[in-house]
Amino acid sequence: MFPTTFSPVRIGPLELKNRLVMAPLTRQVAELDGTPTAEMAAYYARRARGGIGLIISEGTYEVDELSCKTYLSQPGIANQKHVDAWRMTTDAVHALGTPIICQLMHGGRVSDPRCLFQGESAVSASDTQSEGWVLYTDTDDEKHDRGVQGDWPKVTFPPARALTEAELGKVADGFAEGAARAIEAGFDGVEVHGANGYLVYQFIHPKTNLRTDDYGGSAENNVRFAKMICQRVRDAIGPDKLITLRLSQDGVDDFMGAWPGGVEYAREVGAALADCAADALHWSSFDWTDNRDPNSDVPMAKAIGEASGKPMLVNGGIADGPGAEAVFESSTGVAAVVGRPLFAHPDWPHIIRSGMDYPWAEFDRKYVIQPPVDLGVTYPMDRRVPDWDPDLSKRR
C-alpha cells in the first residue's frame, strides 16, 4: 500500500526509511524550568515505535531572554540541565531506528506574559500587539484535562516592541547556541520555526512586519532574518546535520491568516530562500491543498518549492494513506508531515500501511495531555498537574 509514502528518501544529510514525518506538537508537559521529562521520552519513543520516518520535536526555546520562551511548561534547550534531560528522549528514539530533530522557536509577541521576566517586554518585527490570546487558556475542557484547580484565566498578549538590528544578531546567535546544544543532546538536526505566529513568522508575514529597514518591505527583506538564523545555525552545527525552516500563512493568533499577494508572494518568498542554509522547507497549514488565494489553485508548498528549488515537507489535513500519497502524486513535496492523528494513534504509519479499515478516534485535546506512551521507557507514567499561577500580573 502507498508505495511512494513508504519508500526511503534522503533529506539533506538524513536517510529516512519512509516519507512520513511527525509534526512538532505543542504539549506543555516539561518541568516549569523547561527540563524535559521521562514521560516526554516515552511519548516520542511510542511514535518512533509506530513507524514514523522522522520526528520533529515540539517547539523548544533555545535561550531564556528577549521573550524567547513562549509557554508555561515549554521544554527548553537553553542550558546543560536541558541538554542532559533531552538525552533520554533522543536515546529512546534512536534505539528504535528513527532520527529526531529539535524545533527551535522564539515566541516574540505571542509569548505568554507570565514567561517574561520582570521589566522585560515582548519583542517582534515591529511595534505591534497581537489581538489573540494564549492557546487554550479560555477553555474549561483544557483546565479539566490538565487537572488544574482554581482560576483559569484567558491570557491576552502585551504590546511588543520592535527588535533593533543589533538585537536581531543576538537572537540569531541564540538560535545557533540552542542548535549546538541540541546536537550535544543527541538530536540529528534542528528546525527553525518560522511559522504559526511566532517571532520569525512575524518577520515573514507582511501583516506583522512594518519595518522600513533591510528586514522589511519586500519578500526578500522579510525573509532576511530567517536566512540569518539558518546561516548561523549552519555555522554552529556544520554540514552533516539537518536544518529545516517551517513556514505558514496562519498563526496561533490568526488561524485564517493569508499572505497578501497569495501564491505570488509565496513564489517571491521561495525565490528569496533559494540560497538559504536550510536543507529543506516545511509548509505548515490546516489543509495543504487550500492556499487561501482566490486567484490561484496552486498549493503554497508547491509554489515555494518550485521557486526555491528546495525539498518541501508538507503538513496540513493529512489523515490517511491516500492523503499522504496525494502529496507525492501532485509533486508538491518529498515528505508528508502528520500531526493530530499521531496523538491518539502512535501506530498511524503501520495502520495505514496495512490497508485495513480502521475506526479512527476523533482528535481531542485530551490526547495531547495524556497520549499513549511507551511504558518500556518509563513506568509508571507520572501525569504532572501544572502549578501555573493564574495571576496575569506576575512576571518571573
- Which fold name corresponds to the CATH topology? TIM Barrel
Distance from N terminus to C terminus (CA atoms, Å) equals 52 Å
Q: How much beta, percentage-wise?
A: 5-15%
* Annotated CATH architecture: Alpha-Beta Barrel
Q: Which of globular, elongated, flat, extended, rod-shaped describes the shape? A: globular
Distinct helical segment count: 13
CATH superfamily: Aldolase class I
Compute the gyration radius: what is it?
20 Å
Overall SS class: alpha/beta
Q: Write the element-wise H/E pattern from the N-terminal end onward.
A: EEEHEEHEEHEHEHHHEHEHEHEHHH
Average pLDDT, all residues: 96
What topology, given as strand order, has the largest sheet? 3-4-6-9-10-11-12-13
Q: Give the tally of structural domains.
A: 1
GO molecular function: FMN binding; oxidoreductase activity
Pfam family, one: Oxidored_FMN
Protein name: NADH:flavin oxidoreductase
Domain NADH:flavin oxidoreductase/NADH oxidase N-terminal: 6-356
In terms of topology, how is this protein built?
Layout (H helix, E strand, L loop, with lengths): L8 E3 L2 E3 L3 E3 L15 H12 L4 E3 L3 E2 L18 H15 L5 E6 L16 E3 L15 H7 L13 E3 L2 H20 L4 E8 L2 H6 L14 H4 L1 H14 L4 E10 L10 H11 L7 E4 L16 H9 L3 E4 L5 H9 L5 E4 L1 H5 L3 H7 L10 H5 L27
Parallel strand pairs: 3-4, 3-13, 4-6, 5-6, 6-9, 7-8, 9-10, 10-11, 11-12, 12-13
Antiparallel strand pairs: 1-2
Helix pairs in contact: 1-2, 4-7, 8-9
